[in-house]
Amino acid sequence: MSAEIVSTGTELLLGHTLNTNAQYIAERLAALGVYCYYQTTVGDNADRIGQVIENALNRADIVITTGGLGPTMDDLTKEVVADLFGLPMEMHPDHLAKIEAFFQRRGRKMPENNKKQAMLPAGSQAIPNHLGTAPGVIVEQDDKVVILLPGPPFEMRPMFEETVIPYLAAKTKINPGVLHSRTLKVVGPGESVIENRLRDLLTVQSNPTIALLAKTAEVHVRLTARARTETEAAALMGELEAEIRQRLHPYVYGVDEESLASVVGALLNERNLKLAIAESCTGGYIAHQITNVPGSSDYFLLGVASYANSAKENVLAVDEETLRTYGAVSPETALAMARGVRRLAGSDIAAAVTGIAGPGGGTEEKPVGLVYAAFVAGDKEEVEKLQLFGDRVTIKEKTTYAVLNRLRVYLTEEARP
Amino acid sequence: MSAEIVSTGTELLLGHTLNTNAQYIAERLAALGVYCYYQTTVGDNADRIGQVIENALNRADIVITTGGLGPTMDDLTKEVVADLFGLPMEMHPDHLAKIEAFFQRRGRKMPENNKKQAMLPAGSQAIPNHLGTAPGVIVEQDDKVVILLPGPPFEMRPMFEETVIPYLAAKTKINPGVLHSRTLKVVGPGESVIENRLRDLLTVQSNPTIALLAKTAEVHVRLTARARTETEAAALMGELEAEIRQRLHPYVYGVDEESLASVVGALLNERNLKLAIAESCTGGYIAHQITNVPGSSDYFLLGVASYANSAKENVLAVDEETLRTYGAVSPETALAMARGVRRLAGSDIAAAVTGIAGPGGGTEEKPVGLVYAAFVAGDKEEVEKLQLFGDRVTIKEKTTYAVLNRLRVYLTEEARP
Q1: CATH (domain of B31)
Q2: In this structure, what DSSP letter does residue A316 have?
Q3: Is beta strand A219-226 parallel, antiparallel or unpaired with respect to B209-214?
Q4: 20 to 30 Å CA-CA from A382: which of A114, A142, A417, B411?
Q5: Are residues A374 and A387 in the same domain?
Q6: Residue A247: which CATH number?
Q7: Which residue has the higher pLDDT, A178 or B261?
Q8: Contact B143/B61 with Cβ under 8 angstroms?
């Protein structure tokens, strides 16, 4: 069973709107085990919409469209599909009543042009829309299906969950449980290093499949197993996961929804250790990532974004002498910041970073992307020198990952209870 | 002159990745006056990529692809296009040297599989990539052009700006000025309030067109004018922009690439005022936004993410009495935090927030989303109570917008020199 996604809307072609619908539907289809080989975006033009849907129906069993169900003149998808299947449009008084009620609840009279939203291709099935005026439509003919959904994501998503998923599950007779995915999250080595270590597995992959996905500062290894039962899928997956974890050790930090910050948080909680952070070049981003984790107030005491030298001196007690002799971007200052914030917060562990995030401020000796990351825990004191590349926000993000990963490695390997 | 966008990558078909590249390129093509009627997404499969590019070339003059230029086995786009045009692949020693230098700068040896990134279709033009190892490619044959770009947005975007836009402008002989866009950025009222205020303009819009785009904590109003000359477009746009600004006053904070933080930064620089921030529930996010702006070290002195009560007492000198009597989430604590961080940093202005970001920690009296935001500047001292809705990150983001907007209004209206 295969499907295609067709997104309609001139606002997508002009780049005014980001197409989040295609991603959402693609993710759901994959979870259902429905194959999807193409996504197409087309403007509000009847001929072109018709060609795209026809072309998609030639390749796939199911076509899912978003957009073009509104009350305006350039909302055309329903009419195009009716035409394609040779079906007349029929007025549905029950839907008309719902649309009128929708406006009434908002204290408004239904505009005349909303009437057309109650017209459906003959013999089609309506998809209820509780948050808007446009019902969706399922049109079946021979072995082919077209599912029409509205464009606004907050209307489309609940309709997909409530009606489309059960419809597809029944249609495909696929037990959604048979497609099992698991994402291993890797921090440290780049995509090509990981590919080299997994080369033979990637070459012979069939079930489970393996996909590598590079993010700004981490790589995701996604395993997807097809099986008749959950137990079987888990067994298939477990063996491969163990092999990959061993080959990538110690760089797999977590799975699925875990983030590097949530893993560090769980380890801090387990070890009953408290953390403080001092940031110069990252300017609060490390603290932001740590505090994105619910419950982080249990272990995170203090973050100081000491941007000015005066703040480094007055808040973190970095020696004016240190700053003058070595500069704000130096291993000495990074270490003094980490010691300072640990003392100030009374934490067990502290990390500090100072560097040049750019785009200005770099010199030959201290170029943009140069970062010193200091780490203090127990009697341990160390400073790491990083040379990072990318724009300002990328350098902030890569620095943050390096710091969180140092914390993770320490908490996993050295602070084992 | 027309173009099509082809995005390749199985991660897009599986919904693992949001396709921001298609939007970015679509927006740029529209700005250049290049028509674009279709966008297609296809997986890492040579046959299907070939069919999609061939189909696109039958409809359009220019096809722009993203993805598939990496070093791995499933990076296929370049090879597919060479095949389609009947061109052999050639090794370019100068590009190989650049790729080797890229790894050398990072203190690493180039993996063997990166070599293939230096292979280009015969007679094609390379697009330099300063932030990654994959050069882009422009392949011309007869009247048709294929432009291949890498998938990572931070590599693709500068390549598009630096090489593709000048290429397209020369190629199309179109004055890019004929399609003129401008985005007004609005903070405060929601999308439907804005729609109501602009209803008549939205109804009769033709040239310029008006599009509303709701973000988490702001709304973008995008105007696009078509005209023969820049002057004519600017005149068309200017009139409508003035009308909209008046209707939405004082909520339009900036235009185009400006962010709320960059506008606040420019105002602080102009007024020669220094800023400090104390954060509890936002945990560093306000400081992160402020320091995303290049040059923010000129006016941002200090951010304190005082997550623990002990940090509020020891770092910001909030009275233990205040915390005990009113609690950490209270107007009294917010104000004490703002006073404390201003004193500590020696800044002119300070803001502080304390609240409950959730999902846990809420009570009937102090529910999730309750935030107190304090603001001190000169003799002015005030605390605002906010009740926000959404998940943890959304509440952090909305709080950050409220604080930055308060700073903007103060700097615009009250701190006028």
Answers
A1: 3.40.980.10
A2: T
A3: unpaired
A4: A417
A5: yes
A6: 3.30.70.2860
A7: B261
A8: yes
Question: What beta strand segments (E) does B274-411 contain?
Answer: 275-279, 300-306, 349-355, 370-377, 380-387
Residue A214 reports pLDDT greater than 70: yes
Which chain A residues are Cβ-neighbours of B23 within 8 angstroms? 12, 15, 17-19
Instruction: Determine, for residues A393 and B292 on separate chains, whether the beta-carbon distance falls below 8 Å.
Output: yes
Nearest CB among B38, B222, B357 relative to A41 is that of B38
CB contact under 8 A, B360 and A52: no
Structural domain ending residue among the three candidates A117, A143, A174: A174
- The structure tokens listed for A366 are 């201290």
Instruction: Specify whether B108 is located in the same domain as B207.
Output: no
**Cα–Cα distances in Å, from A24 out to A66, A153, B130?**
11, 9, 32
B284, B370: one domain: yes
**B367 or A107, greater pLDDT:** B367
Question: Into how many domains does chain B fold?
Answer: 3
| Mean of per-residue pLDDT scores for chain A | 91
What parts of chain B have a pLDDT lower than 50? none
On whether both B142 and B27 belong to a single domain, the answer is yes
Do B90 and B41 share a domain, yes or no?
yes
Is any Cβ of chain A less than 8 angstroms from the Cβ of B104?
no
Query: Is A141 an 8 Å CB contact of chain B?
Result: no
B115 touches chain A (CB under 8 A): no
Measured between alpha carbons, how far is A397 from B3 in angstroms, rounded to an integer? 34
Residues 387-406 of A with CB under 8 A from B: 387, 389-394, 396
Identify the band that residue A209 occupies on the pLDDT scale cut at 50, 70 and 90. confident
Q: Convert the pLDDT of each residue in A277-308 to its tens digit.
A: 999 999 999 999 999 999 999 999 999 999 99
Tokens of A326: 């070595």
On whether the CB atoms of residues B41 and B13 are closer than 8 A, the answer is yes
pLDDT, tens digit (0-9, with 9 covering 90-100), for A323-345 = 999 999 999 999 999 999 999 99
Pick the closest to residue A24 from A156, A172, A214 (CA basis): A156
